[in-house]
Design goal:
The protein is α+β, with helices and mostly antiparallel strands. It is built from one helix and three strands, in the order βββα.
Length: about 100
């Protein structure tokens, strides 16, 4: 097996599909299938238990990735909400100050 790294930017319509025997394959379509896919295929010589362990490992990795993205999104939303509240409070205080200066 070759060792390499490849980076594909996922578009909002990215998709993944899988197939079973005789060659279980995971098809990742970074742009929803418009220009091809990245295919991750298991050897047919692997036992069903080995294939399942591989699939479970991918599933766990994707779930951790998704959970991290969800946590990051929640932190960003919370920070944006806090910033909006702070801006509203600044605007309110400016309004009170301007009303008191007149």
């Amino acid at each position: 097996m070759s060792s390499f790294n490849a980076t594909y930017f996922l578009e909002p319509n990215a998709d993944a599909q899988g197939s079973g025997i005789p060659f279980p394959t995971l098809y990742v379509q970074p742009d929803g299938g418009h220009s091809g896919s990245v295919n991750l295929q298991m050897r047919s010589s692997l036992t069903p238990d080995e294939q399942l362990r591989i699939a479970d490992s991918f599933l766990q990795g994707v779930q951790r990735w998704r959970d991290q993205i969800a946590a990051d999104a929640e932190r960003r939303r919370t920070a944006e909400d806090e910033l909006a509240e702070a801006r509203a409070e600044i605007a309110r205080l400016k309004g009170e100050h301007e009303d008191g200066v007149e």
